[in-house]
Amino acid sequence: MSKQINVALIGNPNTGKTSVFNQLTGLNQKVGNYPGITVEKKEGICKLPRGVKAHILDLPGTYSLNTTSLDESVAVELLLNKNAKDHPDVAIVISDVENLKRNLFLFTQIKDLKIPTILVINMADRMSRKGITLDIDLLEKKLDTKIALVSTRKKVGIDRLKELIADYKNLSVAPNVDTTVIAPEYFKSLRETFPNEDLYKLWLVITQDVNFMPLEKNLVKDSSSFNTKSKSELKRLQQKETIKRYQFINSILKETYKVDINAAKGLKATLDKILTHKIFGYLIFFVILLTIFQAIYDWSSIPMDFIDETFASASEWVKTTLPPGMLTNLIAEGILSGIGGIVIFIPQIAFLFLFISLLEESGYMSRVVFLMDRVMRPFGLSGKSVVPLISGTACAIPAVMATRTIENWKERLITILVTPFTTCSARLPVYLIIIALVIPEGRFFGLGYQALTLMLLYLIGFGAAIISAMVLNKVLTIKTRTFFVMEMPNYKLPLIKNVTYTVWEKTKSFVLGAGKIILAISIILWFLGSNGFTDKYVNAESIVENRIEKEGLSSYNQESIAYNLSIYQESLNDSIAKNVYHLAPEQLIDSTNQLKQTLLDKAKNQEIASYKLENSYIGNMGKAIEPLVKPLGYDWKIGIALITSFAAREVFVSTLATIYSVGSDEEDTIKNRMAAEVNADTKKPLFNLASGISLLLFYAFAMQCMSTLAIVKRETNSWRWPLAQLVFMSLFAYIVALVAYQILK
Amino acid sequence: MELFQQIVVYIIVGLALVYLVGKFLLPRSLFSSKKRPKKVCGEDDCGCH
């Protein structure tokens, strides 16, 4: 029986490695996992000439033997460990004819491990279209190997590859590059310490950050003759090795690989020149971003308004149709508003992911990432962090989800942790009302103070994200290494099926993931706001009615009723004068009295609701935290709003609206009521410049979003990071708000 | 009818509370029979991203 040889297929991602594997093995293949890990293991049997059989292993795609992921470490471990069951007798490096230079880097590394190696140049059918000519004989000679020019698409070259595998014993195992020249002294001491080991193999083991699980690193018994190097020195040497290899590759390709530029002038080359241009590239990206955000805001507003109105109508319908009681109130005020609070974000999320998906599918996103990488790297972020940071201005939830495209864990984690600093749309209602209250309406160089303050808050948010990223980059000790190798895929028209699938998956993931948590919190908040244990809560109606009987309605409600009545009378008199209505004086009085009674009832109900809220569980909680928020210039009512808005920032305004018994969420009305609030201690307006700026800064920095925390938990699969984020952001927000108030008061 | 509504409300609130406690406070192993992978997500090689 003939011997079965082990063959490993290895190559960069997107080189058609799996197509070669499929053509070699046909149906004789099986897919499983590597022991103990979730990396897919594909293996198969191939019949070779002269009755030889080959066990083919399709290794995970890798750019080099300097691993950054578990997938890559599987490939490297197999090549380094001669005792492994599947250690290859021959390695086949699959390369793509258009990216030969990059692909040869991996080839030279494997060749230097003294494993018989065959080079497959795949996608040969593209050569004439791209104006590529190759001197295969010379390339074989220079690389000291055998080459198979293959086109899996046209099923060409596989037979030659099988011949080469069968003759693997004739392949040279001489290394391509002498790595020892990068540090002769270091390699000399390495050789003296480990005389029986292969030097390049030792070098690879020393410079790996990712542990190879089955490979144990034994302690060296006597290392006195071996001078170890620091991590930074090793990295510098690794860079030298990379340069050395590319020098070798460049010198070879100069003689063997020619591209006729005139023939290669395709759409991709032209577009790449423009889209990755040092000036135009950024300008085009900026314009695309502006267009996307404008579209997100404009297009989302229509379905969002529709959703808002639908849920408001549904709530109203429930209240008027179902029998009155706790359950009806829970459905109308808790469950429906909770579901509405989730569903209302769907348009924004769907549109954002529609655009991201279109950019990714078309191949443009890879160019953006390449373009931005240089700008973001000093801050510990990657080019891929740009999309989440920008998406964060709409909503941090899809933004955190968008970090999935960042492969490097440290960069991804930093992006997740800093994204909530960017000003999301939920902060806007808070900003707008506080700015309108405390910032004067004057102008500075034609720009309003209020608009400038809003812009400043956006800049503060973005600045906080960038600075935090810089700090986290220094503080986090996560072992990671970044080799920014970016595949530039061809431009193509996005497939509707793929785009639809992405949008559906992301939206579903949000609704079913964070949605359940938001709904549960809304139910609990409603319960805490609608129930209480004190006598004041239980007897709220009689207490408020007695108070109104003795002291009358609150001054605000009295003024409000008087104002509404005067407006009504004016309009009525005007209509009578214009002969629109014909009313007798008695009818006029009746009509006015009717409206007055309605307004009085409404005001009384509002005051009861306000009193009940004040003495509800949540009201008591607000009072309990009052000592904590007082130094920031807030009272217990703002304290309640801070608690409720922990579910979502925008809840701040609606909570204050309820507390102040306004009953309407019209900004102006709330604004007037808030402006009339007096600080019980200072007897000055509660919302003044000091407390207003303090509140703005608090909301700029605080992690007041339960859904974001839930998403961060899901994306990091740990409570450690969202809790750290919550504690840091809350403490930072508190300190900044405290300092601002104490200085400005 | 009022009492029935109250009972249903308490059940819903209770379920919401149990859900949140289970989700955020109790260890996941109590709800899942699946073994946690050796490599926890949050490392370069977790294979989750």
Automatic annotation (TrEMBL), chain A:
Recorded topology in the membrane: Multi-pass membrane protein
Database matches in Gene3D superfamilies: P-loop containing nucleotide triphosphate hydrolases
Limits of the FeoB-type G domain: 4-171
Highest taxon in the source lineage: Bacteria
Keyword terms of this UniProt record: Cell membrane, GTP-binding, Ion transport, Iron, Iron transport, Membrane, Nucleotide-binding, Transmembrane, Transmembrane helix, Transport
Family to which the UniProt record says this protein belongs: Belongs to the TRAFAC class TrmE-Era-EngA-EngB-Septin-like GTPase superfamily. FeoB GTPase (TC 9.A.8) family.
Protein name: Ferrous iron transport protein B
Species for this entry: Maribacter arenosus
